[in-house]
Amino acid sequence: MPELPEVESYRALAERALRRPIVQVDAPDAWFLKDGLDAPTVEAALTGRYFVAARRTGKLLLLHTAGGGPVLGLRFGMTGRLVVDGRAGVDRLLYSSDRDVAAWDRFAVSFADGGRLLVRDPRRLGGVLLDPDQSGLGPDALTVTPAGLRSALAGSTAPLKARLMDQSRLAGVGNLLADETLWRAGLDPRRPAGSLSPAELRRLHRHLRATVTQLVARGGSHTGDLRPARTAGGACPKDGAPLTRGTVGGRTTWWCPTHQR
DNA sequence: ATTGTGGCCTGCCCGC
DNA sequence: TGCGGGCAGGCCACAA
Fold first, then answer.
1. What is the pLDDT of residues A89-115, one digit of tens each?
2. Residue–nucleotide distance: A123 CA to B6 C1' (Å)
3. A261 carries an active-site annotation
4. Residues A62 and A162 in one domain
5. Whether A250 CB is under 7 Å from strand C
6. Residues 22-41 of chain A: which lie with beta carbon within 7 Å of strand C?
7. In angstroms, rounded to a whole number, what is the distance separating the alpha carbons of residues A229 and A118?
8. Could you read off the pLDDT of A54-102 as tens digits, one per residue?
9. Which of A81, A98, A130 is the C-terminal boundary of a domain?
10. How many domains does chain A divide into?
11. Whether A59 is catalytic
12. Is A6 a catalytic residue?
């Protein structure tokens, strides 16, 4: 599902949509427009303008318009895809459908040259925002510093995994990325977030940055080394122990009871 | 304030 | 072969 790695792929794809005059905006699904946004407003905000930059914070894609104009924010939930000129941002999306169904096109921007940028989301869990408020987002997981990670976790009794996925503390980590990172770092997802020693914090930071970087390069949060074993009867790829399945932070969680402490 | 829970969305897969 | 139930998780509202 779209976590940081997928959205980073979408961001790179969205570079193709820059400096192309916008002639039409289609927002057929009112549910998909968030924070009180409506179709006439977003149409008026974008038509006649063009994008100049494609940025990303966590799982939020930001398309800036020229001259300091409005910023289009796109969220993808767990089943949303970005499509530009018929080209999809990722080949395959876990838990979503790979089919092309026009009814799943929830939002589209058409350019003067005939091309289009659109969000295709079967489950409608994503959304469109205008000038999104980013004050509620923590530092991006791809670039977070050791101190940033420490302050995201410090003093908390919540499960470590829940804090890693708390977008207001750290932006970009979803369920699969959290399991993969904690598995690599050898940390029990149920540990109180504030209980990590300085050495464990450094280890987690190193593995977080490395994991995110690697999964971005591989093309998705589903390309982790733990992922194939995240299933009934799965064994730890490191030591062969049967993986444990449970609910942590309200999400299905798989971990190795042997080496994750 | 922090933490936990349940609901929303709907395609897909499994078992009958 | 059709059908119903459960499942997936990002995000948000709400409760304790």
1. 776 666 677 677 888 999 999 999 999
2. 18
3. no
4. no
5. yes
6. 34
7. 34
8. 999 999 999 999 999 999 999 998 889 999 998 887 766 666 776 778 8
9. A130
10. 2
11. yes
12. no
